[in-house]
Amino acid sequence: MKLKGTPLQIKVWKYLMKIPKSKTKTYLEVAKAIGKPKAVRAVANAVGKNPYPIKIPCHRVVRSDGKLGGYSGPGGIRAKKKLLTLER
Question: Which of 37, 47, 58, 62 falls 20 to 30 Å from 81 in CA-CA distance?
Fold first, then answer.
């Protein structure tokens, strides 16, 4: 899969592909994992611009307060909730 995006977006998307099924990470955890701990908002934006929802499992990224956050794939937040439930 050839990813087209900014260097940060590509770094985020590649990291998301490493999150195992039934596991979640927060936007902050993703930011720290890619070496950009202060770029939480930029990470969230990159997650939201994911060109391949499901293949790049952005539904596995949640807010630090435990809430689901958004989902840019078809079906929006309902789909994110369903995907997370199916993986558990």
Answer: 37
Separation between Cα atoms, residue 77 and residue 63, nearest integer Å = 13
Nearest to 79 by CA among 57, 47, 51: 57
Domain ranges of the chain: 7-87
- Report d(CA 7, CA 31) in Å as an integer: 14
Q: Is 58 a catalytic residue?
A: yes
Q: Which one, of 59, 49, 41, lies nearest residue 6 by Cα?
A: 49
pLDDT tens digits for 17-26? 999 999 999 9
Helix (H) or strand (E) holding 65: none
pLDDT digits (tens, 9 = 90+) for 35-74: 999 999 999 999 999 999 989 999 999 999 989 999 988 8
CATH number for region 7-87: 1.10.10.10
Residues 46/5, Cβ–Cβ less than 8 Å: yes
